[in-house]
Amino acid sequence: MKVTVFGIGYVGLVQAAVLAEVGHDVVCIDVNAERVEKLNQGIIPIYEPGLTPIVTSNFQAGRLRFTTDAAFGVEHGVIQFIAVGTPPDEDGSADLKYVLAVANTIASHMKSHKVVIDKSTVPVGTADKVKKHIEQVLAERGVSLSFDVVSNPEFLKEGAAVADCMRPERIIVGTYNDAPEPLMRELYEPFNRNHDKMIFMDVRSAELTKYAANCMLATKISFMNEMANLAELLGADIEAVRKGIGSDSRIGYHFIYPGCGYGGSCFPKDVQALIRTSEQNGYTPKILQAVEAVNNKQKYKLPTLVKSHFGDDLTGKTFAVWGLSFKPNTDDMREASSRVLLEELWAAGASVQAFDPQAMEETQRIYGVRSDFILSGTKEAALQGADGLIICTEWQQFKAPDFDLVKQQLKQAVIFDGRNLFDPERLKQRGFHYYAIGRGE
Ligand code: NAD
Ligand code: UGA
């Protein structure tokens, strides 16, 4: 099947590669010429486990092509995916300018029937806007062509994106009528073999399903962070509580890990966008407001613990930071909790020696060269001469460090752990001050 994907970011590139992997003929369009050129040279612009081999092999097989030539892209696929960004605008609503720009491009170049599939996360009502926009441009061109608009939100997780797209738990398809169903079934047939994972519904429900899913997950996390803060006050251990409640299958173990706040390009912006949508419709979304407020505060948890130990003025102190990306297995720094930590430490006068397995380049791009910031080559190098260790992201390689070495390298044996990686008792026995989330000192 011929497929075109607009937007070669985390979602567009992974989706395109996976569709090519099962045999579809995929053309990817992006306005970022540098990105397109790099991909054509075999350079993958993002870190995502398992992505490089499938991009490379399908590119070599000619099933996956990258270009800035939008007219060619529109001509190519019956299916036209919109997978561009929907960042927050000034008031937190999702900015639809990139989505509507693609709708405009498709409408300007199409010469035959197209199925326009919105994969970006967009507020309820966006499919209507895309549909109207295409109708308007076609009318201006004076042509009469049929087209369908479909809402097909994406649920992949960064760090597991290839696996999530290869084996989706569900494929949500919102349509205005039954016409696109056979084509959508054919497109996803290779991913829909064992049992039917395709759930068809109206477009508005599909659009809301995406926000509801992310907001529910964000709610679980903020709820647990609130319980962790309460556990500290009450002398309870949140890790015991987590296991205790997770064992109830109605609650489950997923997404109840307390920590230093959720980050990433999705939860923060999607919670915010649904709050704005609610408000614009005259509804006050109290739960969502609380989810956002708890998370914004939780991102200050690590710097607050550091200051409670060392005092508010951190001038002359140096901290080792392990983990910068917003979660493990990605180089993505968007809304990462580490950014609040770094900026708070610098503001209090401290210097930082940081290490991350994948996000060093991105961190360098964001913060540039600073006299109070060293990006260390290894996690051990980051420790050298530091006053304490702070852990922001739970990369596997941080889970069993050589504690004797850690103690030897640090000026003070103190660890601030934003991901609850270690047993507090064991660390105490080894002579560490160990601060975690919801576990007391
Ligand atoms: P991204 O920023 O990584 O990539 C977007 C790409 O679109 C960029 O390469 C940009 O140059 C390109 N683009 C912008 N305007 C364009 C145009 N007119 N024509 C062609 N290309 C254009 O974004 P992302 O993280 O892949 O997210 C895309 C959408 O998917 C967002 O709505 C996001 O909320 C949603 N989403 C993201 C994830 C995730 O984990 N990143 C998961 C599910 C859903
Ligand atoms: C999230 C959703 O999980 C995906 O289903 C969705 O498609 C995506 O957003 C999106 O819409 O873009 P992602 O942001 O890649 O995926 O990563 P998650 O694994 O959900 O983690 C998000 C944040 O929550 C991370 O900062 C992580 O550390 C934090 N988190 C996660 C916790 O603090 N506790 C948990 O128990 C789980």
From TrEMBL:
Pathway: Nucleotide-sugar biosynthesis; UDP-alpha-D-glucuronate biosynthesis; UDP-alpha-D-glucuronate from UDP-alpha-D-glucose: step 1/1. It catalyses: UDP-alpha-D-glucose + 2 NAD(+) + H2O = UDP-alpha-D-glucuronate + 2 NADH + 3 H(+). It comes from Rheinheimera soli. Residues 320-424 form the UDP-glucose/GDP-mannose dehydrogenase C-terminal domain. Gene3D superfamilies: Cytochrome c1, transmembrane anchor, C-terminal, NAD(P)-binding Rossmann-like Domain. SMART domains: UDPG_MGDP_dh_C (SM00984). This is UDP-glucose 6-dehydrogenase. Its EC number is 1.1.1.22. It holds the Pfam family UDPG_MGDP_dh_N. It is an enzyme of class 1 (oxidoreductase). Belongs to the UDP-glucose/GDP-mannose dehydrogenase family. GO terms for molecular function: UDP-glucose 6-dehydrogenase activity.
